[in-house]
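dumping this here so i dont lose it
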């Protein structure tokens, strides 16, 4: 094992009241790829700032190797004194660093380098800061939510860059798919302390559940032991007073441990408030277009959105997702074509910019619209502090100004307000930004269980796969030209269908290139017949893949059942880790088989049709 180049041990930090960090630690070795996970407000960003030397812990050990370079991704970059973005990014380079890296990174992040820092949007500022910290290829790279405001092509490019980077990485992100692909170790920050799993994020949630189940069992055993000791106190023999006093002291200590135990932070419990049911047809768009100058944002596009649909909008930044969304919801008139909205629509919108939040407003005032202490949720009067608890806000936060909340807490607050309003059409523009994993799970359940209609814009591939029934994406993602296509299913389904369509087009183009002279009349019938059938190998795969997929699913279920044993991880971690590794390989194999079967099934339908 290599010696650590960064080590935080027994870190304590409190801002008054309950400690934010109490015994937290972090150890980074060369080439580590660590994801730092935990609830919003658990202290992840603070621990990262302590590692960077920006915040000082009140106690604990902080060690950074003297020869190691550290770069930290700033949430609010300071561009003072820099005339261009390139000058800002190049200022992060050290002696001997390659200045070409700045040009390369800015180009892939969608910047030229000539931009005036004063005119940058929030997303562009984040990209410039990312180029600045990555350009020197430091020994330790500390990234706090690097994917915020990045589009899908850039996120996928960033994944590849970080995977092949020589820098050790400590990463905070809400993007599950991004964490799974980049991380090789996980540090879980929970109730002020940290636990480490020497495996990537893909194994984290099963491990976390095992730890919490073991902890709950331990607390249950402690409670039972306290009951037995209390029974002995009341009815036991009291002749040996010294021994009795010792047992009494032990009982008091057990009671103290039991009372002082903080269980895992609660989960958000909420559902959308249902409005009157909308008409069956929610939106009907017929050949709508929108052009700005010489650029087509939306070429003739038609769609019918029915009640209960959940539609995802994806594409690179600047492709026109927000423009198309506004046209579909009647906020923007198309240049040509028509949009008809259904009857009885009650629309609720979550804006990615969080613009409707007044920083000086209090949480209670924002949720109730200044109408006292109560609000109406699903026709029921609720006290605002009780409703806040469902979204993990404490009663004492009711009078807290919104400006004191973290980005994740602000997103949760807006979610709480939206879900308290009667709605049958949810419009969610980048709803996953700044949300922790547990709140993302809640949002997924809300969207999946919502009886109305949902249209959402997102760059979160995992969230799209778990929620949407169809995906609208640019026909040409590399160079959007205004053409949009609706695909059945989520993001992964869209990729599979697009891949199948591209391969089929290549086959058609290849067939068209054959000289006509080679197609003799006597053989034309046979050639036509050959092209209208699947090969023997394809037929065999189409028939046998479902059996192989069912077998893989059964093997996964068997391992999941074994791993559900709450004592397995503590008693036999080697077996737990082996089962987790086997499950990962089985899931990868299952995904490949599903994609292959989908492509073959689409080809069969096309040939038979």
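and the seq i came up w/
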């Amino acid at each position: 094992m290599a010696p650590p180049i960064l080590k935080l041990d027994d870190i304590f930090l409190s801002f008054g009241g309950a400690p934010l960090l109490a015994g937290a630690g972090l150890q980074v070795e060369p080439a580590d790829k660590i994801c730092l996970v935990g609830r919003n407000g658990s202290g992840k960003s603070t621990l990262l700032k302590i590692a960077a030397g920006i915040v000082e812990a009140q106690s604990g050990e902080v060690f950074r190797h003297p020869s190691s370079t550290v770069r930290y991704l700033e949430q609010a970059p300071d561009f003072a004194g820099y005339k261009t973005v390139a000058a800002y990014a190049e200022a992060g380079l050290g002696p001997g660093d390659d200045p070409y890296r700045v040009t390369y990174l800015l180009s892939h992040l969608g910047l030229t380098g000539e931009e005036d820092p004063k005119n940058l949007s929030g997303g562009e500022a984040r990209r410039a800061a990312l180029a600045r910290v990555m350009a020197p290829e430091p020994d330790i790279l500390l990234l706090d939510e690097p994917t915020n405001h990045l589009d899908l092509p850039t996120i996928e490019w960033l994944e590849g860059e970080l995977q092949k980077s020589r820098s050790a990485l400590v990463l905070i992100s809400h993007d599950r798919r991004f964490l799974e692909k980049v991380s090789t170790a996980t540090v879980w920050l929970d109730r002020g302390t940290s636990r480490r799993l020497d495996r990537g994020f893909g194994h984290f949630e099963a491990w976390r559940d095992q730890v919490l189940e073991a902890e709950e069992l331990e607390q249950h055993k402690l409670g039972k032991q306290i009951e037995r000791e209390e029974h002995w106190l009341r009815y036991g023999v009291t002749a040996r007073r010294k021994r009795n006093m010792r047992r009494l002291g032990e009982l008091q200590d057990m009671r103290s441990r039991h009372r002082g135990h903080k269980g895992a932070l609660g989960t958000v419990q909420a559902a959308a408030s249902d409005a009157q049911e909308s008409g069956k047809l929610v939106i009907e768009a017929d050949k709508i277009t929108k052009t700005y100058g010489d650029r087509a944002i939306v070429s003739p596009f038609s769609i019918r959105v029915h009640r209960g649909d959940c539609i995802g909008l994806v594409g690179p930044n600047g492709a026109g997702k927000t423009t198309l969304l506004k046209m579909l919801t009647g906020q923007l008139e198309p240049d040509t074509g028509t949009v008809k909205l259904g009857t009885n629509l009650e629309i609720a919108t979550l804006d990615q910019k969080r613009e409707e939040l007044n920083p000086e407003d209090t949480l209670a005032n924002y949720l109730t619209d200044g109408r006292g202490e109560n609000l109406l949720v699903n026709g029921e009067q609720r006290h605002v502090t009780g409703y806040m608890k469902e979204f993990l806000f404490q009663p004492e936060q009711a009078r807290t100004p919104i400006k004191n909340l973290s980005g994740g807490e602000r997103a949760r607050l807006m979610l709480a307000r939206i879900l308290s309003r009667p709605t049958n059409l949810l419009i969610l523009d980048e709803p996953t930004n700044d949300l922790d994993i547990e709140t993302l799970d809640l949002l997924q359940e809300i969207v999946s269980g919502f009886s109305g209609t949902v249209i959402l814009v997102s760059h979160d591939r995992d969230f799209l796969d778990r929620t949407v029934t169809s995906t609208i994406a640019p026909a040409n993602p590399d160079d959007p030209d205004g053409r949009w296509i609706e695909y059945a299913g989520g993001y992964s389904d869209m990729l599979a269908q697009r891949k199948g369509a591209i391969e089929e087009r290549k086959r058609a183009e290849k067939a068209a290139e054959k000289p006509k002279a080679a197609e003799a009349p006597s053989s034309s019938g046979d050639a036509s017949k050959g092209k209208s059938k699947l090969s023997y190998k394809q037929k065999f795969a189409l028939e046998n893949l479902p059996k192989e997929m069912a077998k893989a699913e059964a093997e996964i279920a068997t391992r999941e059942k074994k791993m559900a044993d709450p004592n397995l991880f503590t008693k036999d971690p080697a077996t737990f880790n082996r089962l987790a590794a086997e499950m990962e390989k089985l899931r990868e194999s299952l995904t490949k088989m599903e994609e292959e079967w989908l492509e073959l099934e689409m080809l069969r339908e096309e040939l038979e049709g």
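The chain has four domains: 6-206, 212-260, 281-495, 524-608.
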